[in-house]
Design a protein that fits this description.
single chain; about 150 residues; mainly alpha; 3 helices; about 85% helix
Length: about 150
Amino acid sequence: MDSPNTNLFELQIDASAQSYLREAAKWAKFLSIVGFIMCGFFVLFGIFAASILSSMGSQFGTTTMAAGMGTMMTAVYVCFALLYFFPCLYTYRFSTHMQAALRSNDQQILISSFRNLKACYKFLGILTIVMLSIYVLALVFGGLGAMMSR
């Protein structure tokens, strides 16, 4: 454990730590920009899938069902885009603030950078908990449904 003389507020970012943070910020910026592009593709794919399904439905005479499925697909893809947007935003803010903090040696910008990194991981952690809960509920209700169908 830590000795009584060790204080976390006295931590210093030396040259090697700055190098690691600078490289991490570059990769984070790259990944966040690719993530923003993917969010756009999710939305576009949802819109095009809806129009393709409605045109296919009109050809086969199932316009109402195809339109409903197209609307549902659009909603699902837009929701995925929204869920993916926020971690990308927090990662982008982390990277830009980290690069600025390392350039200007500004403690407040560095704190802001780490605040965005924390927000990214907190968002992903909560999303993971929600998804695991949905999976558990699906397994429980699926098992109950299978037992009742016998």
